[in-house]
Amino acid sequence: MVSKKSFLDLEKIKTELLKYGVKDVNSEIGKIEKQIKSALNSCKEKNKIARKQYKNAIPFSEIYDSIDKLNLPDWVQKKINSARIFGKSKQMIIFPDGEKYQINNPLNNLSGGDWLNFTTSVFSTFYTTKGKDSYAHKIRKIHPSPKPPQLMREIIEFFTKENEIIFDYFMGVGGSLLGAGLSKRKAIGIDLNEKFIKAYKNAAKEIGVDIFPTKCGDCLEIFNNEKEMKSLLNNEKISLVLLDPPYANMMNKEKTGGDIAIYGNNATPFTNDERDFGNLKQTVFFDSLKQSVEFVLPYMKKHGYIVLFIKDLQPNKKELNLLHADIIKKLNEIPNLNYKGLRIWADRSAKLFPYGYPFSFVANQIHQYILVFRKKK
Ligand SMILES: C[S@@+](CC[C@H](N)C(=O)[O-])C[C@H]1O[C@@H](n2cnc3c(N)ncnc32)[C@H](O)[C@@H]1O
To answer: I need a labelling partner for 100 at 20 to 30 A (CA). Which of 185, 200, 283, 294 fits?
Structure first.
């Protein structure tokens, strides 16, 4: 049994569950207890192994004279006095608590544990839209689908090192740019809609992070103008292109079911501009997205990543509408790009609606695909 003094007040949870009519309360509580116990056991086991590894490792100062040329992240430098070197290649730093950092990691500044956690293919979050932890949601909510800056920060921290550049040419109210500001990276953004860019700047001020360069306009037109691109990038190479594209006329469709309760039954396109990717027919959308990636690749560093969010549409009689699969196939046609895999993000704060009730199954899609591509050379 988990002690009642633990951070979870299981008795309180039990009362709440009973209040909401959950039938098998003891079994629900049992499941939570089992999960906590198994997480604790796995931590204990890892800690035991790590302590042994640390004991057998060599003090850092016996291998390296100084940290000057090692380009170590701040968190490693701060506790370098307790660091030891582990493994044959002499590249693995280990700390007394078992945290590890690989000196020749070219991708990010993460510890081994954080790297491993990020590679979980499915994860879910519940981000609040109220108070300080909402990251200025009050300002960002003028956009119909803003991305949580905390989520973008985690992605950015995996695919880049500090001070590297993130580029989002569908920036909206700046989920990616705010995420970059929160993680000591730099960013550049483009959006067709000036109102969204202004809201991003206000949100950055409110949160207290850097305000990065932005450009209002059509991304394809801007990419076509080499001079403009060069001045935007200031001769630096992009490490991560992080995109949340509008697609397949989705926002332009009249709303149905539960969405009416939120948006009314009118279409809510991001803009009425015919260059808006959200207003393109599906086939044109796929081609335009591919074209945009081809344009941007030369401005990226070798082995840089392109990460994009996509949600499938509901299937219908004519189409399966597996947009994520269609996009993977389309972008993988680009010779200098490799598809590397995906993660599935479930947004637990999304409202559920009885779409097909009581006649047929219609999924409440609370998940989005995060597709990962890497530039070859
Ligand atoms: C899904 S939203 C991105 C939301 C963003 N991730 C955020 O956190 O707010 C897509 C954005 O792409 C913009 N957009 C659509 N077509 C564009 C184009 N051709 N060039 C630049 N921006 C475009 C829209 O105005 C919209 O704000």
So the answer is: 185
Tens of pLDDT along 160-212? 999 999 999 999 999 999 999 999 999 999 999 999 999 999 999 999 999 99
DSSP assignment of 162-176 = TT-EEEETT-TTTHH
Residues paired with residue 102 on neighbouring β-strands, in sequence order: 92
DSSP 246-265: --TTTTTSPP-TTHHHHH-S
Centre of ligand 1 from the C-alpha of residue 6, in Å: 44
pLDDT of residue 260: 46
Residue closest by Cα to atom 22 of ligand 1: 191
Q: How far apart, in whole angstroms, are the C-alpha atoms of residue 287 and residue 297?
A: 16
For residue 190, the CA-to-ligand 1 centroid distance in Å is 8
Taking CA atoms only, the protein residue closest to ligand 1 atom 21 is: 191
Reply yes or no on whether the pLDDT at 266 is more than 70. no
Tens of pLDDT, residue by residue over 149-160, are 999 999 999 999
Pick from 139, 147, 192 the residue to mutate for probing ligand 1's pocket: most ligand atoms within 8 Å of its CB.
192
Kindly report the CATH number that applies to the domain delimited by 122-375: 3.40.50.150
354 pLDDT more than 80: yes
CA-149 nearest atom, ligand 1: 8
Tell me how far apart the alpha carbons of residues 262 and 128 are, in angstroms, rounded to a whole number.
18
pTM for this prediction:
0.90
What is the mean predicted confidence (pLDDT) over 283-291? 96
With a Cβ cut-off of 6 Å, ligand 1 is lined by 143, 145-147, 169-170, 172-175, 190-193, 196, 218-219, 244, 246, 270-271, 275-278
Residue position matching structure tokens 């990717």: 277
Residue whose CA is at the smallest distance from ligand 1 atom 24: 270
Domain regions of the chain by residue span: 8-56, 57-104, 122-375
- Tokens 């390296």, residue? 64
User: Which residue owns the Cα nearest ligand 1 atom 7?
Assistant: 146
